[in-house]
Amino acid sequence: MLSSAWLLFTRTTGFTPLQAGQWPKFLVFYAGAYAMTHAARPLKLAGGLACAPVGTALVDGVARALRSSKVAALVVLLVAEAAGLLCCLGAVALYANRLALSVAV
C-alpha cells in the first residue's frame, strides 16, 4: 500500500515525498488511500468468497494435469503467482525509476 501510494503521489504531483515540503502532503494523500482501502474490505472479502470455487477448480485442474496431489498443485500455483507478482513489481519499479529520473532532470 505504501509503495502504491508513493508511486501515485509522485505521478500526481510530480514530486517525491522526500523533496522539501512534500512529506505532510504525502501523509494526507496516504491517509486518504489507507481509508479507501479499508472501506473496501467487505467487498474484497465478498469477492474472495465468490472466487473460492474457481480457485478450487484451478487447483484440481493443475493436479490432474500434473498427475500429482492437490498440495503439489497448490505449490506450483503459488510459485507461479509469486513469479508473476515479482515481474509486476519489477515493472513498477522500473517505471517509478524512469519517472523519478524524468522529474529530477
TrEMBL record:
Q: Keywords in UniProt for this one?
A: Membrane, Transmembrane, Transmembrane helix
Q: Membrane spanning segments where?
A: 75-96
Q: Which domain of life is it from?
A: Eukaryota
Q: What is this protein called?
A: V-ATPase proteolipid subunit C-like domain-containing protein
Organism in which the protein naturally occurs: Tetradesmus obliquus (Green alga)
